[in-house]
Amino acid sequence: MTRLVSLFLVISAFMVSGCASNGGGCEDPASCGGPSPDARNPCGDGVCESTETPQSCPADCHMGSGSGSGSGSGSTCGNGTCEATETSTSCPADCTGVVDFDNYSGKVIYYLYAWPCGTTNKGTDLLGNNTLASGYYYEIPMANPGCWNFEADAAGSVYINSYYGATVVPHQKYTWNIY
Questions:
Q1: Do 122 and 82 share a structural domain?
Q2: pLDDT tens, 36-70?
Q3: How far, in Å, CA of 72 to CA of 49, rounded?
Q4: Residue 24 burial by CB count (10 A; 0-12/13-18/19+): exposed, middle or buried?
């Protein structure tokens, strides 16, 4: 009987420790009483996404992190405002804008460019080896909000459309409807 009780205690301790086996994380959040992971918002991946806050995902978004943040400066990552002591690196939840490229052109977009206003270099193709079919969208985080220019091209770099002077704001989504 003593062996059976000991075995039960060992198994119980093992099951309880499963919720803290990843440095305090949970292998199966549902069994640990936490929220289930969301494929579009992977809490616990080490990146504070624009949809995560210190309250919704403390594993990724740390309150009080960054230079002077939370130490009397009044700066709080995750409050929806990109404050002077925060950057898109230290607090992407507040300081990263999002651009949504919606393709209504009736053509397949092979090349998509975004470059800061006041410059002429279009930079690298945002789609890489992908294409954007008509009726679909492509969303990217903009680590440096501000004034941006966009261009969409078809196969062979044939011009489809462009937009100059789009204002990308931290913690908000800018949508460019491509016709």
A1: no
A2: 444 555 777 666 666 766 677 776 665 543 333 33
A3: 25
A4: exposed
